[in-house]
Design brief:
It is built from 16 helices and 13 strands. It has about 425 residues and is an alpha/beta fold. The chain folds into two domains: about 130 residues, 2-Layer Sandwich (Alpha-Beta Plaits), CATH 3.30.70; about 210 residues, EAL domain (TIM Barrel). Strands 5, 6, 7, 8, 9, 10, 11, 12 and 13 form a nine-stranded mixed beta sheet that branches. Strand 9, helix 12 and strand 10 form a beta-alpha-beta unit. Helix 3 crosses helix 4, helix 6 runs parallel beside helix 7 and helix 7 packs parallel to helix 10. It is elongated and about 75 Å long.
Length: about 425
């Protein structure tokens, strides 16, 4: 009897399931009974916040916190420059500016702290409100982000098209009592701060102009008798009175804006020397120019104006000696050559590490490589010059040493060089 009861229970359960399924099929698309709505903090009629709304709230909190704790507002700025777009006739193929900026934004986001605020500055930059650091630290961190962005762009095949530079600002210098209450405010004041930064660097360079001298030195062939060109060495006066000395600062390290203005000063001084230079034998004139002065449109406009102000017969003898630096920006050497191609005789590349820099010079279209101040820069100048000379000749390039001392000038086998200028 127990088994009959169990069988009845199974049959009843199955019959109930069939009836439930049959009723559901008849209802079809009938609405399901209302379920009590979950209470929400925002009413359905409230506007949907923009994607940046939370960033705006965090920005206001960060501004208040920095005011209270650090007493200042410090911002960083990573500027992305489309070098390819500067060259006439360039198709600027490859990664689009919008995608390149996305790369820069993602790199920056990975490198900042949770308390820092990142804001996209369309179409070519990102701004960072750094939490509680100095302007110098903000600039250093921004430059590290810029370098990492260049490396990331290189990995996707866009390293030769774009340049990134990092800057740091004390925003209080430009706020003039105004408040930063929105993302748009931050972007606007970062732009203002950047213009002020560039103007300040130009002003400093112009103040230092009085201490800059351009010294023309003959470049002799390896045989020591044949004149093959002139080296325009840049010296800066240090000290006052009888104790003042001249230091060779042809390739002195400088911030890009400062370096570009110094390069303009040198070109202008060379123009002032045009009459005696043009009266000499028409040989190439080697003049130092930084790569960053050429591939950033903000600086190149001034370089171009200084070049165009020269008598054409002088400009067409110029061979800019380009210092590529040691960062990822050196991939822009071919772009620099294209920018200068119709204005100068050719380009040469400054060498620090022959094994690396000579290959970069060859890839960049240079025909001449330059090693400057070997006795001053290297512990074993003879060994360095011998290696430089050998690698350059193997690459089919012309090696020249600028500012050679007696040791290098007297090396066996010889090397084309200008001699060091005594103080």
């Amino acid at each position: 009897m127990i088994w009959l009861g169990a069988l009845g229970l199974v049959l009843a359960t199955a019959l109930g399931a069939v009836i439930f399924a049959w009723r559901g099929s008849r209802r079809g698309a009938e609405p399901v009974a209302d379920v009590p709505a979950v209470e929400r903090r925002r009413t359905p009629s409230a506007p949907v916040p923009s994607p940046d709304a939370s960033v705006g709230d965090r920005l206001r909190d960060a501004v208040k916190r920095q005011r209270e704790q650090a007493g200042r507002l410090t911002a960083g700025h990573v500027q992305l420059i489309d070098v390819g777009a500067m060259i006439e006739g360039s198709t600027s193929a490859g990664l689009s500016p919008a995608k390149a900026l996305k790369v820069a934004e993602e790199v920056a986001r990975q490198m900042i702290r949770p308390s820092d605020i990142l804001v996209r500055m369309d179409p070519d930059g990102v701004a960072i409100l750094f939490d509680g650091i100095s302007r110098d630290d903000a600039e250093a961190r921004s430059q590290r982000i810029a370098d990492a962005t260049m490396a990331a762009l290189g990995e996707v095949g866009a390293g030769g098209r774009y340049l990134a530079e990092g800057f740091g600002y004390e925003l209080d210098e430009v706020l003039d009592g105004a408040l930063i209450d929105s993302i748009e405010d931050l972007i606007r004041f970062v732009h203002i701060a950047h213009r002020g930064y560039v103007a300040k660097q130009r002003g400093v360079a112009r103040e230092l102009e009085q201490g800059v001298s351009v010294v023309r030195r003959p470049v002799m062939a390896a045989n020591g008798f044949e004149l093959i060109g002139y080296d325009m060495a840049v010296f800066r006066r240090h000290g006052i009175g009888d104790g003042a000395t001249l230091r060779d600062e042809s390739f002195a390290a400088a911030q890009p804006a400062m370096g570009a203005e110094t390069d303009c000063v040198v070109l202008e001084k060379l123009t002032a020397l045009a009459k005696p230079v043009l009266g000499e034998e028409a040989k190439p004139i080697y003049v130092p120019i930084r790569l960053t002065s050429l591939v950033n449109p903000l600086y190149f406009d001034n370089i171009r104006s200084a070049l165009d102000a020269m008598p054409p017969v002088l400009r067409q003898r110029l061979v800019p000696v380009i210092d590529p630096g040691d960062g990822p920006g050196r991939t822009h050497l071919p772009r620099a050559r294209e920018l200068l191609r119709s204005r100068v005789l050719g380009i040469a590349v400054r060498v620090t590490d022959p094994a690396v820099d000579i290959a970069a010079a060859s890839a960049g279209g240079a025909t001449t490589v330059i090693l400057d101040g070997p006795e001053r820069r290297f512990e074993k100048p003879e060994d360095m010059v011998a290696r430089f000379r050998r690698i350059a000749r193997e690459a089919g390039l012309t090696p020249i040493v600028l500012g050679a001392g007696d040791v290098v000038a007297g090396m066996s086998g010889g090397v084309a060089c200008s001699l060091v200028t005594p103080n």
